[in-house]
## 1
Amino acid sequence: MAFLDYAPAPESTSILNLRDEYRLWIGGEWVAGGGASFASVSPSTEQPIATFATADEGDVDAAVRAARTAFRTVWGPMSGRDRGKFLFRIARILQERARELAVAESLDNGKPIKETRDADVPLVAQWFFHCAGWADKLDYVGLGAAPQPHGVAAQVIPWNFPLLMLAWKVAPALAAGNTVVLKPAETTPLTAMLFAEVCEQAGLPAGVVNLITGAGETGAALVRHPDVDKVAFTGSTAVGREIAKALAGTPKRLTLELGGKGANIVFDDAPLDQAIEGIVNGIFFNQGQVCCAGSRLLVQENVHDAVLERLKERMATLRLGDPLDKNTDIGAINSSEQLARITRLVDQGEAEGGERWAPDCELPAKGYWFPPTVVSGVEASSTIAREEIFGPVLSVLTFRTPDEAIAKANNTPYGLSAGIWSDKGSRVLAVADKLRAGVVWANTFNKFDPASPFGGYKESGYGREGGVQGMQAYLKAGK
Amino acid sequence: MTTPSAALAPAERAVQLLGGDLSEVALRRHLEGLPAVDAVGLEARAASLGTRSIKTSSKQAALDLTIRMIDLTTLQGNDTRGKVHSLVAKALVPDASDPSTPRPAAVCVYGDMVGNAVEALGSAWSNGRDDGINVAAVATAFPSGRASLPVKLQDTRDAVAAGADEIDMVIDRGAFLEGNYGKVFDEIVATKEACRRTDGTFAHLKVILETGELVTYDNVRRASWLSILAGGDFIKTSTGKVQPAATLPVTLLMLQVVRDWERLTGERIGVKPAGGIATAKDAMKYLVTVAETCGEAWLDPHLFRFGASSLLNDVLLQRQKLTTGRYSGPDYVTID
Amino acid sequence: MATTTKTPARTATRLDVPKTYKLFIGGAFPRSESGRVTEVLDKRGAFVANVAKASRKDARDAVRAARKAQPGWAGATAYNRGQVLYRVAEVLEGRKAQFVDELQRTEGLTAARAQQQVEAAIDLWVLHAGWTDKVAQIGGHANPVAGPYFNLSVPEPTGVVAIIAPQEQGLLGLTSVVAPALVTGNAVVVVPAAASPLVAISLAEVLATSDLPGGVVNVLTGDPAELAPWLAGHADINALDLTGAGDLDWVELEVIAADTLKRVLRPEPGLAPETPQRILALTETKTVWHTKSRL
């Protein structure tokens, strides 16, 4: 066996203690759902993990009522200091159960354990720790003295970072004094259920956090519930648009974190080896199922060939396979639907004249897999340069001058993220100024931090998560 | 700083790459044109390679390979014949409890100890063959390099004459930091010349950059490239006398340089991290970094070495653990 | 060589020269492409002027002009934007009498009330002139992230903002929505109060002579109910400020705006016009990360 084949190094699943069936967690109780229960399958094996309840309108109503009651009777009146202490407790328990959560997330989502262990779960704990400290300092978020929580927050999150997106939503909401009803995505409900256990261990008062499972209908019922004060959604632009319409004219506050088609711009003076890593990280992190993925590589024409050659060489070392293997770089696609979408778009990109390349890599027989792929010769007008693919597929475009790079980078209805690779500081700053994107990574990519605001321009949504802006989204000016 | 158009000593690689009118200016322009290094990205990549998990059969193979890549080293002012004999004995029989244990690539000593090492190795001395143990000698006023060029070259010639198969020279870091790349270049070329044996063959030349004194990664990349241009067979991180010595990011960077050199010329240059690599776990990270940067071809003692003294015993402890299934202890491996 | 010229004696019968009130698009004063005008009468019903009545195509042209002008305005230094906004106040001060007169005629105010409104508007321009180089320090932050990164968040202009100006106090209302939008570098397409078109166009003349680049502010006099849906639906508008749309079907406008996920500021009562929060409501937080190495 060649050294680079690395013997299997699977993370043990014995750390998990899963139930066969999870119900809804409403008002601190596990209750049956009114809808038909459904199974979540592991995307890498297609094996069912557990069954989950579907919350119908009545369940949604019960959850919102539980949140309202908790807001009125316990969480609203509680001092910021004590709310903070609960969040600190949660942060610590998340750290204590980090490995278990990482394994569960990897199992349910299909992403490599390397990522859940080193990125998702540590960030989850950090997010709670960060927001915990805000709870007794709300006078300083920039809304004047004694800002007020909205009340009940309805939160709907996607499947690409299940627990991390929960943390981005729940932590600031609770720190600000809101209570929440959260719905995880139907393909990745597992870690939200484990989070319910974490809340139980922390002794969080009943109803402060309510977790309901189900598909799109459950989410729609939740955000439309009349007694909800604040809606936060992360997901597709299409659904975000529908929510914005549904909430028009209502007093509900709305923040949206939607799609993207991030440009990763490589100038000819880039630190080349690091740029290659940044390109790889930008599009293959989490199989490219990242709204801020650097899915459009804009490379200066005079280094195009060198970059592409090195990129392909590097891609050939990516290891695709069992997400629970500690050496896996590329895990499974989250669902068969997503796999079909990726496949369709890449086929279309090829049909439109793109040149498709993927390293030799054997795909497992079971599960949903797509090899890391680069499509070169893509033009600004190509479908795969326009549409969000949400998969491990990089479209390569070229540019000649900084102005052209900026124009191409901004030539999209989205505006979430962008990358710049250049060793020239003045150019980096000038280009960063002109990019219409909420997050610009210079000589790095896909970095997240609870102190750093995240969110998009244009059709990538509105509002920010993280930082002082993230706290403002869950507060209104005091009287 | 720059001496314009100063003619440099001829060095085949540099002439081929930079053209016949090899000058200080041409050299400087070439080195300054190398791609920049972003330190954070480099360190992040190294850290990520460090998280690879090498288990079971892969680990077994990697441990044996590590031993075969070690330059078992003693470089102390108080080295004696006895100490060198002891070191050589350890190289010959790393683990008496397991005859299948491979031997290290070389023993590495000061130049005046080369004769002792050769004598102690006896028939195990490679003496140019591929299946024995090499004797490597540090030279050129190691570790500081602060001596006149004639002294450095004589130091080298003495070691080669005494039988050194490999010369580990140090570059003039002062000259490098002054921007006097031509001086550094010339000294390497001259040292390479001093490695020539009477039969016309050369002792292998490892060029020590002393990365802990160059400090920045951009300097390391330039010095690596410069050393290769001037004729080095290996580029080596450190003397072991300066902290930090070898680090994973620095080694990764030097591996990227030799990978790029191969891409450009087809020629393969070796890399030797030295100093501070003490555990098998660390060695695994280096092997992963080698394999994922340069490919499996570099997993070869001709192209990658560890300059180390205590690493060997830790690898042996891990080896015993794999064999017996139990954790071993320091009393079950021999000291040199 | 000086010659004496005789000034004609002012007689009571001298004919005034009335102004043609046109649109303000891209720094120019075109008539509506539709050829339509609205007759403006004073409170006693006497004819005052024919004011251009903007059409959807005028709105389209205005958006195009705004988009073209926006990067340059945003790219100007904050100091420069501040000086331009201050210049607006200066020029306005010098033409106070004209605005007082127009307000008296269209809003039926006493001279004193009209003057009060004009002075309040001037002072609001001065206030916002002072915000340009400060608001980023209120809304921007250096973020202490857990890693070797320089990380900075700054408020940037949202882009092109369409505004339905307040229907009361024509000049002050217009100023209260336009000035805060301009502070950070947005470009504006504004529909002024339907009842106060004169001051809106006169303000446009002030803007046109205050070093404000053409296209940064575009004024569309006309029927807000007719123009607003086109602006709400225009894909090249980034934000919709409905401060003065309380009498329109603003919920429907918000629904239309959701098609392109515009930022929407709902009708009054909103944020006070002099606050940094009002300015920041039309900004995007951009966060820039850069590696920060030890070496």
## 2
Amino acid sequence: MRRESREYNYDWMLWSILDHAAKSCDGTKKEYENLCTLIPHFRDVLDALVRHGEPGRLFLNLLSDYCQRCISAHDNGKKVALTSFCVATPILYAFDMVPVCLEAMTVLGTIVLKRGTAEYLDYCCEVGFTETSCSAQRGALGAFLAGLAVRPDIIVCDSPGICDTNANSFAFASSYLDIPFYQLNYPPSLTDERATRYHREDFKNLIVFIQEQTGNTLDEDVLRTVVEETKKQDNLASELLELQRIVPSPVPGIYDLLLYGGKFMTGGLKIYTTLLESMLETVKRNAERGVSGTTSSREKARGLFCYIDHYTTNMRFWDWMDYNEIAHLGSLLFTFWQEGAVYAEDHENETYRIETDTMDTMIDSLADQMSRMPMVKQIRGPYDAPGMWLDDSLGAARLLHADFVAYIGTMGCRNTWGMVKLLARDLENRGIPTMVLYVDAFDDRIASWEAMTDKMDEFIALRRIGL
Amino acid sequence: MIAEIRDIAYSVNNRYVETWKNGGNKVVGFPCTFVPEEILHAAGILPFRLRGVGTKTLSIGDTYYGPVICSFPKCILQLAGQGDYSFLDGTIITNGCDSMRRLDECWRKAGEDIEGILPGFFYYFGVPHKVTDYSIRWFVDEIRELLSALEGHFETEITEQALKQSIEIYNTGRKLLRKLDGIRASDDVVINGEDAMAIIIASSSMPREDFNTLLEATLSEVKKSGAGMAGKKRLMIVGSANDDLDFIRLIEDSGAVVVADTMCFGSKSYVDLVDETTDPVDALARRYLSHSYCPRMFGYYKERLDYIRKKAAAARIDGIILQNIRFCDLHGSENGIFERDLEAEGIPCMRMEREYGPLVETGRIKMRVDAFMERIS
């Protein structure tokens, strides 16, 4: 890693940029426009959010607030848990901890930093981590391994049984930095009684681990506040997704990122509820007017991403969708399987239900929620088993009237690369145009953004999508 | 006798399997050491560890798998697709690692396109990634479900008595393999690493009773041979699955002798015994799950490091080759920390990434091994 990259901590840089970005909306429009001329490297990413009005600005505030929590956790006497995007945050917030979501930190670095996370990705390899590992973790992990971010007090992941490369990143960090580690481990099935019992026992063991390692205790009132907030958020997300079924979709494409990004960082906190409420208001307005959520208010086509999005610098992925008037129908990261979710119709046994009666019911509810997080739910078993990847992709494509399905992942994703050709074939056989993009969502050096858009353009033209 | 064992290790099919099949008996393949072989044995079925030896192309493997996948399961799929595994009556797939567990879907889908390559019994066996009281309970249930499935499909009964007997036979084999370890660790090594690995591979490629007999005879023969290799640098191999005897020979051609390993086609497969005094299913679950020597068991790095230290000390090794198959991030990454920690203790290490399958990288590997030999000489 270059010396200048060690000048400032990674998480501090993110906070500094995002905090200033959030403040940029405090002035007048003229002041904002003048400011944009002075920040050539940041204005595109800033504008990508600001031009979406209140939800965009609230998301910037959320990012700033979250980064602030991360960098000041120890100063504020809070313990830090390094976690994965598929670890639901409510239990950690209930313990008054700060969950530092590794993938969220990678996304933020990728879209905000001028050179993305290349140096941090490579630093992992310098200290022994494989270059073929998943870039979703590796991007920010390099900073943590180099001591250029807050030192976690514990590491918690829930990908063993789901995604080896994800789990391996956290196990590596634990061994390399000598930090206590807990893994929630999932069986290959989801809905049977054995699996439920295992989920809950493992989750209760996590609580014991946190108590032992941090000295924090779980207060029933605090837990209830967080859980009730989570329930409220689930309802708002369900309403948003219901509206997404309308043709044209009234949901702006970037809301996909706002919905899951907000949840991965601040699920269970009031700040995320406020964001969702604001998003829903805009979507309802669009729906009443009968217009699409794109900037032009038109919709040429509807695209579903069956895995993840592309996080190239400046968030150009969502811009590209918007410019081409393609409604972004969400990705795998968009589904959380709460009771009542529109995609859960006829799949009620795959959902979780939040109950707040007693400490035990709340804990079990959170265990059930955790076991249905994106990826944790669908990728645990064979892709064509009931309730798994094919079922979920087909269900979402039909429900949301997708014109096409696209796969974007990372080169480290053994799991999906082990079955994505089969998934694509099955979707095509059912009449859904599907493309597999040989790119890396977090590392433009694998395939440039331009190469990716060329492929997408070609696919859309050849398959006459939207014509 | 060693020549016969080498024949077994150098090919997928062998005369023992042919004889077994000719007798009207069944064979079930499995790709990973987390499958309790005793269960199959107790059902009167030959447990056969799947391998990719002899693969010459990946035309089928690459059709179903994506591009950034470990070549070990791809080679297995290739051989299955070519019909080389036509002697299998069943296959049990595990979630040993992500590449391996997707063999389930890839093989099934290939079976829809290529007639006759999918064995009649095709079973997914889930193995937890941690050792706790509840994960062992879950694994006990999983084993019982496998028992029922085998009984149903093969119309057989697996009795407790048969299980106990199978455990005893397999423990005998493990004890004999440990004797082999002792011989390899002696000062004047009388068996090279290539032959030792051939023996270990044979243990999961032929009926265990025959293997035990053959190994006992081989050990006597080896002890008497007196063809010592004193003076050669003593190496240990750590990391990904490796059943490639050419790879070991290539290392030994550089003037070394491989005296120990911690691989799953090696000492990992016989390091622990199954408790013969308790309920057999419970004992199997505990033995197979508690042997956390594979990095798929996340969070057990210190235990694995300790195991390497002990093996290294017992075999008085001069250096360690930490190898992994490309895209095997579990072994590859852990090798990175092993290197840091073992080098700090004064044990020379070399990390090497390689492909599984036809040894196409001979020149590169030889150059790296030669350089390592220079370093430790």
